Amino acid sequence: MHFENKQSWIKKAAAMAVAGAVSSIAVAPASAEGVLNGETIRILAIGDPVFQVMQRIHGDLEEMAGGTIELDVRGFDVLRQQVLLNAQNDVSNYDLISVDLPQFGEYKGFLVDLAGYVESSGMDWQDFHEAAWTGAYHDQMQLGIPIQPHPEIFAYRVDLFEEAGLEPPRTTEQVLAAAKALHGSKDGLSGICWNGARGTPLGQTITMVMGSHGLPVIAMDAIEGGFDLGNVRPENMHPQMESDTASEMAAYLMELMKFSPPGILNMAWDERVRVFAQGGCAMTYIWSGRSAIYELDEDAEARGKVSYLPHPAGPNGLNVSTLGGWFLSIPDNLPEDRRDLAWSVTEWLTSPEMMAEYTKHGNCVAPRHSVSVDEEVVARCPVIPFVDAMATNGEIAGWQRPPVPEIQQIFDILGAEFHEALAGAESPEDALKEAQRQLDRTMRRAGYY
Amino acid sequence: MKYFREKRRIAFAMISPSILVIVAINIFPILFAVYISLHLWSFGRGVPRFAGFLNYEELYYDGRFGDAVLTSAKFVFFAVLLEFVVGFALAFLFNVKVRGMATLRQIAVLPIMVMPIVAGLVWFYMFNENFGVINWLITLLGSEKVGFLTDLDVALFSIVLADAWQWTPFVMLVMFAALQSLPEYVYEAAKMDGLNAWQTFWRVTIPMLRPSIMIVILLRIVDSFKMIELVFMMTQGGPAGRTEVLPWYLYVTGFQALDLGFAAAMAVSMLILVTIFTQLFLSRVGIGNDNK
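ok -> structure tokens follow
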């Protein structure tokens, strides 16, 4: 939620709704069929489930669109470099680019404000999860449309919890108690899986767990129910790794180590879900979309036995899961005469019909309320209604991973330095101190203060 | 005189395209890296600012850079040592004229043909503590799982092992070719002089193989110093930075954090280090002196 500007956002939303209702009479919404009308659309995409689905059903997609879809799918680092290089061109090589939520801070200078298109096309923006929609709202501009935003949530094995007489863990204290009770209770069963691998995996864990302890990693402005991610200023860039909250976060992660599976120091996104799927962990932190790995696998031990919660809260924290994932945006160096086409394709690819279609092919993400109540979708992807409920209850937010250009450096520094502590090479206090020093140096080099 | 000057001009005109190609491909990127290293240059974040030697100064005080240099040195030492010892022994083994040895040789060189990134992925899964076949075998034998990729004292050696798996055949191949080229009459002379097998090995074979040994060691040192794929796939520099070699730190700085100025300073320093080492190595071992 874009907390500080909530009132203005609601006003704007109301105005957009009225304008949308009026304009929808004049402007027909993009039809699902023939949106390209024989033309070609060029999309720079990420190798994440929704775009992998598009690759898989590429032929059908082109038939539906009535034109050519050039899908340039890249890995995370290469995609980012490509987006930044493309921004320096006089004319964009792509009509649409995929943007990760924390990247809006870095990209906002060269993306088209889509508010006008939303208004004129009558897009039902209220159907989107509020955190997803506002995650792309920066400096009073709507910079992207959610296509695969999903939160990192908390999954636990209901059968094991019931067997042990444990309550679903909503606090970090309860997580540790449950992990202790379940760790080793069965052959090969560990308490909890999480991202302990060095670098970005651990860096992201730290930012999110620190968020669930109540503080972002940089000094963002506190607003009602969270922090202001749409308006990060230079004075907000001071790192907070020597705070009490950072120490609480560090103590929690050090405790988690005791109840983690073998190889936790090298465990990242894919492995933690696969170990959980095979019954190697009783709980796991998980990007909701990845639940498809076991929910769609008939051989997975965890299939049909999992329930979901938002991130468990630290002593002074919030039950708030971190929103991440992908949006479609239009680069501002795209010629005016191609922007309408780019928008029409965006509207089509993010429509409820297409989002339901993606779930048929292994993408268990639906950031629209209307799709989340579709029975067939829910049958395929049990995680979707849980995420929808979290979105409705305000248990999803994006501020934990601040949308600033230095976000990748933040992940790397935190993930490298704190790995020393997890591996027992130095104390958590020293690791946090060193991380603070390096982050401070990074912000000074960038000229923030 | 005029004739010679004219001839020189023609010669220069003839080789100038090659010189231009060398300058464009070899020299320009190095000069451009030096130029970038003198700037605060973050990709996609405004205009680069001239910073003099600031990046080098920060590099000097950056403990992570020093650790990465040390880790690289350790990795190069152990990897090249293992590859050379095993490769050298295999070359002798394959030099024995026994039926089926040619087929074995062909099989032995297969790892060289695997892409390093694929080799990294394969070894990542083999060493993995949850899915890895090696730990599965270890537990079948009743022992505890080994943290091949997560133990502070073991991880670097796991990477060394993966590298040795891939590049030992290369050392073997070069040494085998060198062994094949040794003239038979030298051994006959050694026999007539009454040298036993051990003496023949140290006094005849090794001195004659010396240039090949030095070349293969040099090639492996330079190549191992640039190794990044195995770290990328297997450990990402962990645990606790124990496998963070210099190219990986450079990659993280330049291609993830996009701090191009700092990364370029690192690249230039790496180039200087490798060049100094190579020159020292060449002058110490005296490759080429044999021709004098």
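Chain A has two domains: 6-149+323-396, 151-322+398-445.
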